[in-house]
Design brief:
The protein has two domains: 109 residues, ATPase, nucleotide binding domain (Nucleotidyltransferase, domain 5, 2-Layer Sandwich); 169 residues, Nucleotidyltransferase, domain 5 (2-Layer Sandwich). The protein is 50% helix and 22% strand. It contains 15 helices and eleven strands. The strands form two sheets. Strands 8-7-6-9-11-10 form a six-stranded mixed beta sheet, sandwiched between helices. Strand 1 and strand 2 form a beta hairpin. Helix 11 packs antiparallel against helix 14. The two termini are 37 Å apart. The relative contact order is 0.14. Pfam families: Ppx-GppA.
């Protein structure tokens, strides 16, 4: 017997989805992810990811503004993303800008230009909202029940350190010590990668206070790392150490990866490890930031769930 029209309709209803996109305007790149959200379950299916190497942080952290050249590149990137959204049937897009855009003196010019030329509205969010969205992505991916965890998001302009008791976020703080900012700080002082500890030492007091306040009497069970640099470090575990899986790192493994990377020039990281140029120069600062935070929190393991701000943005649109 054929199913009734009502039954067919109800079955189809279970698979109704919306195609939406999320754009993360960071200090090192502008990334977009398109996903189908199945609201009844709910779950998301990633359709496509895009990345444009637009280093807004270089401008802002050295000159205080997004330069005309970068504005043009960003404009072209958003026009391309808007066209992609239309071609792939995206019904809703949310775009957020973080550290570099927060500090840019011509922030309004940037936001207005992108809206006028692409129709995409940019929200400039603070570090707390950034931490909340990343936490949302992580708790959708990992089972955090009955565990205390520390989330570390390494960006180009800032680092967000968030504490979670079970699935509940209990504290988050943003620190202006991202990878691009560190590189620009080194260049400004005519220092090299070997002097990284000098730069990081300037932030260690505030960072240590945040960690001490949230895990001294109640230590974390593990850390969770998000962002492209963490995902790259997971891949380097296989590439450099010949170990698996790539979904977590021990502190000892991370330290060994740092030693191996520091023995290679940026050019060699590109040629021998096949890292993108805009990853090869920031990967050591990123790894050392993670190492410092893990040591401060006295935790030996960091999970790498391969989700981040864009995933949190997608979930936030449900």
């Amino acid at each position: 017997m054929l199913p009734s029209l009502y039954t067919v309709a109800k079955e189809r209803e279970l698979y109704v989805s919306r195609r939406i996109s999320a754009i993360d305007i960071g200090s090192n790149a502008i990334r977009m992810m398109i996903a189908d959200i199945h609201e009844q379950a709910p779950y998301l299916h990633i359709v496509k990811k895009y990345r444009a190497a637009v280093r807004l942080g270089h401008d802002v952290f050295t000159q205080g503004v997004i330069t005309p050249a970068s504005l043009e590149i960003a404009k072209a990137t958003f026009q391309r993303y808007a066209l992609t959204n239309r071609e792939l049937g995206v019904t809703k897009c949310r775009a957020v800008a973080t550290s570099a855009s927060r500090e840019a003196k011509n922030q309004k010019e940037f936001v207005d230009l992108i809206y006028k030329t692409s129709g995409i509205k940019i929200e400039v969010i603070d570090g707390t909202e950034e931490g909340r969205l990343i936490h949302l992505a992580v708790r959708k991916e990992l089972d955090l029940d009955n565990k205390k965890s520390m989330l570390i998001d390494i960006g180009g302009g800032s680092v967000e350190v968030t504490f979670s008791q079970g699935p509940k976020m209990i504290a988050t703080k943003s620190f202006p010590m991202g990878t691009v900012r560190i590189l620009e700080n080194l260049a400004k002082r005519n220092l090299t990668e070997n002097h990284m500890n000098i730069i990081m030492g300037e932030f260690i007091g505030a960072l240590g206070e945040h960690i001490y306040k949230n895990c001294d009497h109640d230590p974390v069970d593990f850390a969770i790392g998000t962002g492209g640099n963490l995902e790259c470090l997971g891949q380097l575990k296989g590439e450099l150490l010949k170990k698996s899986p790539q979904t977590f790192l021990t502190l000892a493994e991370l330290t060994e990866i740092i030693d191996r990377l520091r023995s290679l020039k940026v050019k060699d990281r590109i040629e021998k490890l096949h890292l993108r140029p805009d990853r090869a120069d920031v990967i050591v600062p990123a790894a050392m930031l993670v190492q410092t935070i893990m040591r401060q929190a006295e935790t030996e393991k960091i999970l790498i769930p391969n989700v981040g701000l864009r995933d949190g943005l997608i979930w936030s649109m449900l």
